[in-house]
Amino acid sequence: MEIISKVLFWVANSLLIPDIIILLFLFARSLLLIGGFYNQYMVKRKNDKALTDKIKNLNYSSIGLLKAALPQQDNSLFISYMRDLLTIPPSEAYSDFLISNFENEAEKDISLSKLLAKMGPVLGLIGTLIAMSPALVGLSTGDISSMAYNMQVVFATTVVGLVVSAVGLVTLQFKQRWYACDVNNLDYVARILIKREEREE
Question: Do residues 120 and 161 lie in contact, with contact meaning Cβ atoms separated by under 8 Å?
């Protein structure tokens, strides 16, 4: 039993460095995500100001106005799919296909936020528990300097893990709400286009 315990202790301690490296990588990735999220927020704010009223008041005769209002230089996910929807002759099958593809792309975009929200606390807790063991050993042997160092690792991994998780959770909540609104707008425009096509026939 003692041999098994020593093996488990050695395996657990060997995971500390990989855990810290992955945690630092995710922290750096969360900082990049904040920058991208802010840029996405500014673009969406500008697009909403230009398009929301036109989509809300859309009818058979104002489709051309909506198409003309789309930004030419903007390649954001919603604008590119809206441009495709307004350019290609409408059909129910194609509209469903386009909206399904948009939902898949949106899910791919928020996957990083989901990963950070879930993995941040897990990796932080792993680092905390691994570093806690030698800290307790240092306490029991009277090695205060060793205990203090390991307690620093304990708190650092916990804090970094929670920060990574917070970034992931906040961006996830906002992006899910944005994409739900975008899907609703695409579906509404598609229905108007299909009804106009049926009326002209």
Answer: yes
Question: Is residue 186 one of the residues assigned to a domain?
Answer: yes
pLDDT in tens, the chain (201 residues): 667 767 767 777 778 888 899 999 999 999 999 999 999 999 899 888 888 888 888 887 778 888 888 887 767 889 888 888 888 777 888 888 999 999 999 999 999 999 999 999 999 988 888 877 766 666 666 666 767 777 788 888 999 999 999 999 999 999 999 999 999 999 998 888 888 766 665
Domain assignment present for residue 142? The answer is: yes
Residue 6 domain-assigned (yes or no): no
Token reading at 79: 């604008």
| Dihedrals phi, psi of 148, to nearest 5 degrees | -65, -40
Query: Model-level pTM?
Result: 0.84
8 Å CB contact between 123 and 117: no
Number of domains in the chain: 1
